[in-house]
Write a structure and sequence with these properties.
It contains 2 helices and no strands. With 75 residues, it is mainly α. The protein is elongated, with a radius of gyration of 18 Å.
Amino acid sequence: MHSPSGYYTVTGFPALVIMLALGFLAYGWPGMRIARRAGKPAWMGLLMGLPLVNIVVIWMFSIADWPNLKGGPDA
């Protein structure tokens, strides 16, 4: 749809789908990878997209024991 100014605009449901996809790529996918590396279920990484909850999740991952790092230089 063209706006009166001549630019192409996306509104409504297509805009929502685009924003959800971008949000998943920005928070969901990396969060799921971090959760798997920390030995947690991947769905916990999706919590990174929720405001205020993401702060708790970051702290939880920072103090958790990561199975991949057992026996490493910081163990």
